[in-house]
């Protein structure tokens, strides 16, 4: 079962919108960051990771975002281009903004944390006027991610992108990706998450993220079925609710529900699990697989990335994904 | 013809949300403000004026807003209460915000301008958590006004109020009331006007205001019929487009359209025309009049207010309105 | 005794630097502001009042400051010019700043309060580059007032003016004029008051203002003699410490001390007492009177202004001052 | 010749005030940062480097500053303590500020650049109330550095520290350390540099830094002798003006002037030259060496640090310094 229809006469498969930043991953793991001394630099940010994952899987991928006018910004754009991602929608900040940073600390596979630098981040300086209607209508799908809603003008740029997507039948995927540190107020967060989700075809988030959105409306209980049905009364066709170790459940508008399993792997760190899941799940749906098969592809991609050092650079190719699905042990949960 | 249905088992007729401020109207008119020396103080702000107009016409009226913790703020709350407006939804700022001010300059009936004080205005400090679902569900209707969307947290408070209104079948009136000086960016303005309008039952604005909203979507022509039809595909039942001296036109979802005329009057100043029109038009609709009759009531109220010194204090009672409609000359345009 | 020497070959007697704003004085007195309905507009701001007082007394007066590009700003500049104040040093803001406002509430002669509008005030937008060395060196004296130190760039503009004054032997008068509402932090306030006072020849303030400055340095006791001596080790020649109803005391570097008395009057409000005192005291010193005679002139001017409705417009001419000193009852305290 | 006298009955030799941050030095040198992939983390910031240099040379060293409440902040405090620096004056930010970062790019020994992260930096959040008079009076000397003047409240904290130092006869060293990226306005910068320099005993800066300070006062020519004499009329005893490759010149209040030479070395990068110079020069002066010998010690320290990868961790011990001075080639310039 796969309810999505795509406008197939488009030169791009998917355009991601939002955060482009730098991960600085500690090379010395299993210790607190105070005791690490070197870091390796990678491109990061949820939509960047998903776009890289999509491109590795062979999708024609574009990006709408903004980078700092410095060495970090140039590194990001160059890396996207090396990964065959079209950067026509990536603009360069001229106000002295910096590239967002995420220093990762890996104390143990279960105990990872991130030290963020988000002040004056270039990615949040994307203006509505820098979002091109012509660019968006060239794509079958648009991916948005919640962090881009955290501040103006990026917030409004996302809403403009959504208007164009709706106008031109571009299927919209929304990876909630709620990061509290970039937001100032929980009610503010929930308002914009709800307004954006109304315009999306596929919504992917954790139970906690959906709870945050529902708390605004004084909805007390956490009921997956009810949560999904709220969005089916708007535009959604598929709603995926992730329950961490307990797996995920996808609902479709026609009443179907599908549970995913997990591929066994050697976990190095948990970062990147969500982004790799999203990129392969979307890839599965866009290449005509059933919802449950697409979920399995998402799980396979996630199990690859969490066994590697980076999030972005670790994204599998189509061949790696297939091989992993053939060889790794898949467990239902 | 009147397509609106109201939940009649509610203790309040209408709750207005948003700006509460002070007008300081020059007592010496027909000269530039440099040459005026005294000012008279009135309550002002579009939703405040509409609420006062509604209460004068006999509607059970409430307000959701925020006032400064000073003499101006207390004056506003006291004035609302004297006018029988329920102020349970009016909170008091504790951050040192001030009351917004509008100094009016009346050089001639055609040449009026306003000098605004909107920095650190208390009305824009209304938080989502200060909007009560219980309060809103006690009202048949909610009135929002665009200025409250100009900044956070008031912007999010309005969206929360809209969510509650939709949830509880409260009819929403939206007076666009676009004031460029309170906004920083035209695209930002248009994004939030469009998002709010999607959730409203009746939308009232000038042609220029609708143009501003459509420019974001690269809609070039100014076509009233098209403008109205955009909103009928969302939630709207009635869309009123005002063309200044050329009168207004109202569209209803069923395809009807209605043109208003104008009552002759001695114009002192043009301020307050829109607010008085809105309060009487809404009153007409809520008391079961046809759309065209309600428009005529709006025009009558406007012709009374523009012949008087203030906006708020000049609002007519039901008896004054009826007498004026019986005696003044009504012209179609 | 008068220790001050002036460079007499200068076209201007005194240039005031800093705040130019508007007072809106309640016309209905002896009641809270909630119950007043009309206000009269006057030029206000401590250095503006002192400059107007100086000009009325016949001094060739100039001003360095910034006004808003609106009707209030133009009114201020026009009023200064009508009072024979040179406005070559007054620039016009181009950033959309507004004119600072002070609404006065006169509940009784003893119970007056002010409601201030200081957000985005044009006077605090004065840039160092807008302070002209050529202009300052044309004056015998410079008057600064503490409020101009409250925020950048006005703060730096004052320090630049002080550098030029010291460089060109321009005598500097410092009226402390500490208004807590314009400052965010008491230590910050004290730092800049102390740095500025080091460069001044005459310092005039209340005991409370000097206490605020000394608290930073962990000086516990309030000792007038010690306070004055701190500044004599820098550049000061005269230090005046005001004790409200208990009169003032002036110290001179040579060890002299002088107590002022008070002229009996019919007090309407207490606003403007300090500014009128300063303008006539400075005038007395600059016209060669002894310190104690200059203090008496200050007291006479204050007693005139507090019996009238405004601060600025109430400033006496030389003739009014002389007549008042001849006729009013002077009491030592 | 050495004009400085120290209060020798103090438990600390020197307290540095100001910036504590992190250097992230590219491990792959001789290429643009876009092409580097790993970075090594060091403590950085001019006063931090000088304090570390002082402690390595055996001085009893303290610090007044503020660190972020995160892994970077804890790393800094731990590193200072490991280097025997007293951290009683180091407070921890509780507002969510981050640690300032400096990514270094070493394209060639002559072409180095820094990518700074200074938004919301914890070091600039030091409050005047966090500067302890009791702590400062326990030290013979205080070192301030210009960057701490860049923003409030750190700016005011420095002025408070200067007040305490003057009050308790603590000798003040001022390393100008002007970094344009942390300042918004050149006149603002010059105002505070000049106000601070008035209270310092030893001022160390480049010709360009002194020019920036003098431009404010419309001083056109760059005259070392005149520059030095300006400060001798205030409190300075020694003024050092650095001319890059052309060496430095030190002036003493008694009219003396001394030129330094340069030790030959294998330059890896130029960062850290100024800080290492300052730490050894101050050490020389505080241990009773002549000005010219202290300058030679400064040059020796600089030649060691610029041949190594870091700034802070590269600071020589007393033994290393002595050996280097005995073995390296010293050239007059």
TrEMBL record, chains A, B, C, D:
Known function: Catalyzes the phosphorylation of 5-dehydro-2-deoxy-D-gluconate (2-deoxy-5-keto-D-gluconate or DKG) to 6-phospho-5-dehydro-2-deoxy-D-gluconate (DKGP).
Species per Swiss-Prot/TrEMBL record: Domibacillus antri
An example molecular function term from Gene Ontology annotations: ATP binding
Name this polypeptide is given: 5-dehydro-2-deoxygluconokinase
E.C. number(s) listed in UniProt: 2.7.1.92
Keyword Nucleotide-binding (UniProt): yes
Signal peptide location: none
Stored HAMAP family: IolC
């Amino acid at each position: 079962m796969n309810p999505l229809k795509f406008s197939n006469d488009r030169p791009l498969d998917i355009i991601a919108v939002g955060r482009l930043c730098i991960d600085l991953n500690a090379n010395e793991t299993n210790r607190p960051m105070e005791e690490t001394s070197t870091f390796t630099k990678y491109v990061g940010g949820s939509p960047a990771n998903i776009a890289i994952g999509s491109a590795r899987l062979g999708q024609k991928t574009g990006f709408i975002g903004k980078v700092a006018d410095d060495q970090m910004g140039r590194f990001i754009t160059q890396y996207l281009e090396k990964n065959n991602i079209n950067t026509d929608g990536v603009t360069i900040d001229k106000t002295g903004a910096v590239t967002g940073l995420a220093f990762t600390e890996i104390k143990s596979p279960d105990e990872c944390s991130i030290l963020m630098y988000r002040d004056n981040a270039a990615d949040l300086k994307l203006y509505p006027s820098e979002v091109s209607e012509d660019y968006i209508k060239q794509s079958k799908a648009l991916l948005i991610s919640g962090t881009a809603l955290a501040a103006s003008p990026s917030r409004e740029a996302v809403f403009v992108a959504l208007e164009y997507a709706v106008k031109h039948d571009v299927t919209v995927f929304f990876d909630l990706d709620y990061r509290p540190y970039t937001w100032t107020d929980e009610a503010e967060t929930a308002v914009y998450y709800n307004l954006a989700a109304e315009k999306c075809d596929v919504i992917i988030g954790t139970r906690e993220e959906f709870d945050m959105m529902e708390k605004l409306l004084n909805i007390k209980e956490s009921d997956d079925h009810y949560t999904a049905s709220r969005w089916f009364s708007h535009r959604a066709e598929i709603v995926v609710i992730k329950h961490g170790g307990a797996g995920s459940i996808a609902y479709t508008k026609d009443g179907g529900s599908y549970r995913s399993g997990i591929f066994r792997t050697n976990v190095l760190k948990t970062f990147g699990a969500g982004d790799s899941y999203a990129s392969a799940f979307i890839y599965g749906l866009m290449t005509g697989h059933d919802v449950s098969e697409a979920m399995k592809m998402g799980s396979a991609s996630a199990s690859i990335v969490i066994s590697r050092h980076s999030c972005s650079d670790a994204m599998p190719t189509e061949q790696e994904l297939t091989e992993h699905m053939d060889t790794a042990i898949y467990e239902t949960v």
